[in-house]
Design brief:
21 helices; alpha/beta; D-Maltodextrin-Binding Protein, domain 2; 4-stranded mixed beta sheet; about 50% helix; 5-stranded mixed beta sheet; single chain
């Protein structure tokens, strides 16, 4: 795949925008297709349409693992959309380096993104060789355990306050016909659950050394062995989930068919859509109730270079709209995520969002693994934990050995 030759052909006719955007239809691709996600996307579309342009929705079902290859293929194949979602981090790195994505530095400078985007690592993830290539829209943290209050009431046990209490309650849940832990079949769900367990059990420093510094010796040690033991508990507790998509697993918690789910704060959109109230119908434990730390991953929009002056101008309007205060509030309240702006009013936030905002304000944060590792390494990790959760014959000890190999060769 010759990204650079494609880039040269596209760049030959590119018109770089300036001034106020003209009216244009922009196709925007993303993988937000669950009920709660669709409600959040509608807020972005409404805000952009108000500029006189039109949001043409290009939703791709199947989450990022399915959607990203399609998005990349279109861009490298000469059929780019006007804007596309990627996660914060290195997912679009090769596209940027190949000259296929638009430089947003002028827009970011004019609107003071460096002053308003918090934490700074979000904009750092958009920056390559000193130039800004994406517009961050939210902060999504993985480090949450979502619990069904009704499920624990049915099982006759108190709602857990931490991971150990949750594991101890599993037999009572099973006796009541409830799956203790819902984990869907998509590989990224199992890998994400392991990452959350690592922060909760081994701590922030170990997480950063293993994933950030690629410390294979530490990955082979007793601290990570404890994480694999916890992952083994999670595997046993998730037996009988029998769903594929993450939102299907979330729905098991919403309906009381499962006691809990380790999932990012995007799950809140599903709870909200179902009319459930944080603290009343469900309980959220940041950091699994052990280490109240959240990751600052999330989503950003990149803008492929286009050979169309009006659409290029409209791209500027969209980038500006995504970070506008009103858009940030409306979108993130529906999405369940935190805003990337540190200067917006979120008085309407629910109890769980307020917990996340408090942790963010204290600076108890880590970068997501998308920000710390290449997509190839991420894929290897997903494959390992997908197999681990699906195959009880793969022991924690053998899985740890394979994990060490991944870390040792990580990029």
């Amino acid at each position: 795949m010759n990204f650079r030759s494609i880039a040269a052909m596209l760049a030959a006719g590119v018109m770089f925008p300036a001034g106020i955007a003209g009216a244009a239809d922009l196709e925007v691709t993303h993988w937000w297709t669950s009920g709660g996600e669709a409600a959040a996307v509608a807020e972005l579309a409404k805000a952009f349409d108000a500029t006189g342009n039109k949001w043409v929705d290009g939703a791709i079902a199947g989450a990022g693992g399915t959607a990203r290859p399609i998005m990349v293929s279109r861009i490298t194949g000469g059929d780019p959309m006007a804007a596309t979602q990627f996660n914060h981090g290195r997912q679009a790195e090769e596209l940027v380096e190949s000259g296929l994505m638009r430089d947003l530095t002028d827009v970011a400078t004019r609107e003071g993104w460096k002053d308003i985007v918090k934490p700074a690592s979000l904009l750092d993830s958009c920056t390559i060789d000193g130039k800004i290539y994406c517009a961050p829209v939210n902060i999504h943290s993985w480090q949450w355990l979502w619990l069904s209050n009704a499920a624990f009431e049915k099982a006759g046990v108190a709602v857990p306050k931490n991971w150990d209490e949750f594991v101890a309650a599993a037999p009572a849940l099973e006796k009541a016909g409830i799956v203790p832990l819902a984990v869907g079949g998509q590989p990224w769900q199992a890998a994400g659950a392991f990452d959350v367990l690592m922060v909760a059990i081994a701590g922030k420093d170990v997480f950063n050394k293993v994933f950030g510094e690629k410390d294979a010796e530490l990955a082979a040690g007793p601290e990570i062995a404890k994480v694999f033991a916890a992952a083994n508990d999670a595997r046993a507790m998730s037996k009988g989930t029998n769903v594929q998509d993450w939102n299907q697993a979330t729905n098991m918690v919403i309906t009381g068919k499962a006691g809990g789910q380790i999932m990012g704060d995007w799950a809140q959109g599903e709870f909200a859509l179902a009319g459930q109230v944080a603290g009343k119908d469900y309980t959220c434990l940041p950091g699994l109730g052990v280490n109240e730390i959240i990751s600052t991953g999330g989503d950003a929009f990149y803008f492929p270079l286009l050979d169309d002056e009006e659409k290029s101008k409209a791209q500027e309007a969209l980038a500006s709209t995504l970070l506008a205060p009103a858009t940030q509030v409306a979108f993130n309240l529906k999405k369940g995520s935190l805003p990337v702006r540190g200067d917006v009013d979120l008085a309407a936030a629910n109890d769980c969002m307020k917990k996340g905002l408090d942790i963010l304000a204290k600076g108890n944060v880590i970068q997501g693994t998308d920000q710390l590792m290449s997509q190839d390494t991420q894929k290897q990790k997903e494959d390992l934990f997908s197999e681990f959760f699906a195959n009880p014959a793969l022991t924690p000890e053998d899985a740890q050995k394979r994990f060490v190999e991944i870390i040792a060769s990580a990029e």
